[in-house]
Here is the input.
Amino acid sequence: MTSPAPTAERFQLWLAEHRGIVIKVARSFAPTPGDAADLQQEILLQLWLSLENYAGQAKLSTWIYRVSLNTALTWRRGVARRERRIAPTADFSQVAAEAASPAERADQRELLEKLYAAIHALPASDRALVLLSLDGLAYREIADITGLTENHVGVALTRARRRLAGLLKGVTDELE
Here is the structure.
């Protein structure tokens, strides 16, 4: 059974529920806020163009992750020169808004910037796995999104976590 023709209304409903996926993927793969905005637009375009291909065989969030990650990986390959400009300066005001004081907000912002810098330093495949894991997805869901086997996801994710822990050495003490 084919899905109904893509409509702006259906697309808007999907985005209302799952826009966070697009934002997280873009922030994880783009070195600057401007690049993240560009990547978000590219992901949204690819989602729109792929909308009629969604047959409902996988969860909607799984499909959105797959399109988003594939778009981000393709985008990264096409703009390798951006890798030299890694300097995350994203607006973290929404994340840090719950802190009790300006000093705590600044500390949270700094820690979040360090986390994103470490994530940016990972190879793209590791970055994707860490992002999906941080989002709380099970190995099976990650396997569906990435096309890897569940066992390979487990092994690769363990290695990616070790690399990330190495990059965050010293920062983790600040989290405790």
